[in-house]
Amino acid sequence: MADAKVIPFDDDRSRGSRGAGSRRRGSAAESAPVGEGPGGEVQPLPVRGAAAQDPTTDPDEPDESPGARPTTEGGGEEGGEDGGLERRVAAGLSFLRRRLTGDYEVDDFGYDAELTDQVLMSLLRPMYEKYFRVEVKGVENIPAQGGALIVANHSGTLPLDGLMMQVAVHDHHPADRHLRLLAADLVFVLPVVNELARKLGHTLACAEDAERLLAQGELVGVMPEGFKGIGKPFGERYKLQRFGRGGFVSTALRQGVPIVPCSVVGAEEIYPMIGNSKTLARLLGFPYFPLTPTFPWLGPLGAVPLPTKWTIQFGEPIPTDGYAPEAAEDPVLMFNLTDQVREQIQHTLYKLLVQRRSVFF
After folding, report:
1. DSSP structural state of residue 131
2. Pairing mode of beta strands 259-265, 203-204
3. Is residue 320 within 8 Å of residue 148, measured between CB atoms?
4. Separation of CA 197 from chain center
5. Tens digits of per-residue pLDDT, 175-187?
6. 292 CB contacts (<8 Å, ≥6 apart)?
7. DSSP state of 306
8. pLDDT digits (tens, 9 = 90+) for 8-34
9. Which residues, at least 6 apart from 2, have a Cβ–Cβ distance to it below 8 Å?
10. How many CB atoms sit inside 10 A of residue 13's CB?
11. Angle of helix 331-355 relative to helix 247-255, nearest 10 degrees?
12. pTM
């Protein structure tokens, strides 16, 4: 594999109802006037159930007899387990039919909303809920509508923190919003990973793609530390690395969207990186090749992350819509806003670490 090239976020180079209802015709008996018998003779309406035996029964009261309850074909009551199972099977078959026939939509970036909601999030959710037991705070700070830029710290040797952020927003935001992550170009040259990233809504970490998504009212997530953050030694855990040249601030200013700082605690310890084999990294075209207490010494088993306890906290948004359009070109303003975001994330990290009882509980 060729050496991975990291494209800086602030690089200004251009880069380029399905079901149909049915109607059933009635029989001749059904089309006759109600209550009229053969030869035009008026007949009394038929009475069934308890009301036929008890003349004192009020016809306006519902029949509570067991035989009056609607049942499904399987014999259970309507809405019971059998009915729920049938609905799930029908929904699954309908989903499979759409996938096989190509009757689904993806956007210009390759985001597949249906596949993400019904399959990919379901695969990530057990890791989120059961393995890392993620606790989410401050999700109400994310706007209910319109574009916003979520800026987070990056750590963990492998970028699982971004995926857990996506699940947090998807499952906990009251407006059912979805987070679109900006990723390094290495993600889009790896087989399988490339396709899955596109389906999840990820796109290249460049200003053009970010501005286009924000203009469409999307939530966009960025981790300005990049490989410097995710590949830092274990001894430097929870110490934020440099945030680049403030490209994310310039993008937010151009679109007038708020910046939401996000702090993630727990990801630093899933793969304690105690060394870096630079020779293997160059051979494989990776920015680093991690050495942990378990990897590569235990083989594939060493690639299993440690089950740490996570906390993801979204901070108060920093507005940018009050600045003039030319503010995006002001280096002093960009530096100040970048430093403000960085300091807010770092301060929250320290606060969460003090509150944490244990790495694993």
Report:
1. I
2. unpaired
3. no
4. 12
5. 999 999 999 999 9
6. 157, 271, 272, 273, 274, 302
7. P
8. 454 443 334 333 333 333 333 333 443
9. 285
10. 10
11. 110
12. 0.76
